[in-house]
Every structure is written in structure tokens, then in C-alpha cells.
């Protein structure tokens, strides 16, 4: 069969285990925080940084360390029945201030742990409830910084590997010089190149990258 293929919308397999995490100076402090659990200085800790910087992967590393009892949530409201000493992960939480305040109290009183993932440090969130503002300012937070060349290259390779694609080193070098320098952009360009290559029945080469980026 010749001609172009239809790009089936199959999700990539994102490898999210500890062995798949790409450690680098920009995320070293956050990884150290995750690995130090359960010897945290406070019941709640936060990791913040831009979209696509690896916060969710760090949370999966944390869940792997904490065990299946660690629960991912997007809101402090409507919580399921929780075990003793609950271990929770709030990923970009919807901020119901009263519910969030009660959740922090519950975690503290029950000896649990709460990992917060957000773009801004909790201390900088715009909240009106004074007691909550005080609690948020007391939550230790570490930032995942923008990537350097080595980390961005590794992230690109990982995104392609998640899609079962091997890309030549010269293509990665070209991408580093011409793409937006962010984790989110790396995820986006990997998806766009995968779709284009599949639709055209060709490998991912510099000419294809040049055309897609333009």
C-alpha cells in the first residue's frame, strides 16, 4: 500500500516511573524533596513551575515511593473516604479556599502528607481567607526551573521514545536551536512531528522539522 497514512489518534505511552525521570540541576531540589518523604519538615510541601516542566512526573515518582495509597486529586472538595495518615497529591488544584483550609488541617491532624503541584508557589496565591493565606505562606516550596540544553534534549528524546520513535541526534540538535525553549514546547513539537511523519509515511528529518516549525 502506498500513499499517505491516516494519523490515528492513539495516545503515547508516557513513562512516568522513577527510572524514567530525567534528573538535572533545574529539578534537583524538587527531586530531593520527593525522595526525602516521609521525613518531610511539614505535612504539606509544594513543587511549582511552568506547564510541562515535569511536575506531574515528579508526582508519579512520589506516588511510586508512597505506594498505591497515594491519591491524585484536582480539588480539595468532595474527597473520597481516606485511610489513616492519608497521602494526597493535588495537581493544579481548583482553589476552594474554605475546603483547602480544612484539608490542610485534616492532613496535619491525621498525620498525613500533601504534595501540591502548581505553577506558582502557594505563598503567592491570591487568597482572601487570612487563615489560609497564613498556612500557604508556611508551606515549603521548591521550583522546577527552565531546562538547559542537556535536559531539554533528554526531554525531547523521552517524548519521542514515549511515541516509540527514534530520532537522529542531528534532528535533536536542530530542534534545540530553533524551538521555543520550554518543556511544553517539547511535548507539542514531538506530537506535531509524530503526526506529520505518520501522515506522510516518512522519518522525522531536519527538512520535516524545518517545515513544521515554520
UniProtKB/TrEMBL annotation:
<feature type="domain" description="Hda lid">
    <location>
        <begin position="153"/>
        <end position="213"/>
    </location>
</feature>
<dbReference type="InterPro" id="IPR027417">
    <property type="entry name" value="P-loop_NTPase"/>
</dbReference>
<dbReference type="InterPro" id="IPR055199">
    <property type="entry name" value="Hda_lid"/>
</dbReference>
<dbReference type="Pfam" id="PF22688">
    <property type="entry name" value="Hda_lid"/>
</dbReference>
<protein>
    <submittedName>
        <fullName>DnaA/Hda family protein</fullName>
    </submittedName>
</protein>
